[in-house]
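Suppose a colleague, Dr. K., hands you the sequence of a protein chain of 118 amino acids and asks what its three-dimensional shape might be. Before reaching for any lab equipment, you can write down a predicted structure in token form. Begin with the sequence itself:
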Amino acid sequence: MIRVVALGGALGSALRWAISLLWPSHFPWTTLAINIIGSAALGALLAWISLRPQTHPLLRPFVGTGILGGFTTFSTFTVEARALPAGLAATYVVLTVTGAVTAVVFADRLVRRWQPSP
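The predicted structure, expressed as tokens, is then:
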């Protein structure tokens, strides 16, 4: 199990790093987008798994904890927020938190609408 999570984490972290190289910015748009996209993906994954209990037992640890856990980043978000001027930092924090939570809820509802339980 630990190898599965570690492999997923390495893949997710490498993807986040590659995206950050392709989309540099003075404002942390990349981290904001990554955290919102990753949150949506996690919401969709967990909804899909809850509707399909026969899924492989390693899917959630590999994709959820591993890939998406490595892809999203709370630590970089915190460091970047701290480096911004106070007003901009507050905006960044609110955008990240509300965006991520909204993305999870939206993705969950979307999957449940398109994939009714068997």
